[in-house]
Amino acid sequence: MSARVQEAAFDFQAEMTAFQSAVTRSGAVVSFTGVVRDDTGSLDYMFIEHYPGMTQAALRNFADQATEKFGLEKALVIHRHGRLQPGEAIMMVATAARHRKDAFAGADYLMDYLKSRAPFWKKEVSKGSATWVASKDQDEAALAAWSLESAAKES
Amino acid sequence: MKLNILYFAWVRERVGQSQEAYETSAATVADLIFELVARDAGYAAAFVDLSAICVAVDQELSDFTTSLVDCREVAFFPPMTGG
Fold first, then answer.
1. What is the share, in percent, of chain B residues with pLDDT greater than 70?
2. Which domains does chain B have, with CATH numbers?
3. How many Cβ pairs closer than 8 A exist between chain A and B?
4. What pTM value is reported for the model?
5. Which ipTM value was assigned to this complex?
6. Mind giving me the DSSP string for chain A?
7. What is the CATH number of domain A2-148?
8. Does the beta-carbon distance from A122 to B81 stay under 8 Å?
9. What percent of chain A has pLDDT over 90?
10. Per-residue model confidence (pLDDT) at position A155
């Protein structure tokens, strides 16, 4: 499983070509890309701060958890930091599994963990004024749902 | 003991620095916050709403009751907004 934290842009096509060529047992490959959104048309740029010592290990840990939980053959997480313009890719995940349900669920699970358990903080700069993006209750609810699902399976 | 304390995002901005070496005998994260808040208005502003503060002890997500025994690094930050 691989996890990378980087400032530079990544080449989505090249990443997916490499990912898929390393897959041998899977019939399903799923990817998700997060892109800097400009809802108001006034966003100058987004700045992503992170906790360098902890980020890489956290991403790796989530990729390992998703792999085990959904029996993935392979998982990839790439997350950028620093200054990003509207329309730029922030991050991507890719998963490979025998069947599509596990590949989709693995990617969804990874995204839910990245949203609220990976040490990144987004700041939006619009017309010279900066605002830290607030976390969302729905992101916590999404994480809680995975725990409930696990508990239901065990009981 | 000497701790390395790190601050991120708006916690960093309110405290006014990204990290510091800090000598303390605080037994838990809560004790440490109590000491920091007493230092100056910047720290007090950073920790004014503890429901908005997350903590990692030696780079593991923790909570305010976590012990600081043998700990080397504590980080304070707002809820994470990755993805």
1. 100
2. 2-77 (3.10.20.30)
3. 66
4. 0.92
5. 0.94
6. -EEEEESS---HHHHHHHHHHT-SS-SEEEEEEEE---SSS-EEEEEEEE-HHHHHHHHHHHHHHHHHHHT-SEEEEEEE-EEE-TT-EEEEEEEEESSHHHHHHHHHHHHHHHHHHS-EEEEEEETTEEEEPPP-HHHHHHHHHHHHHHHHHH-
7. 3.90.1170.40
8. yes
9. 81
10. 66
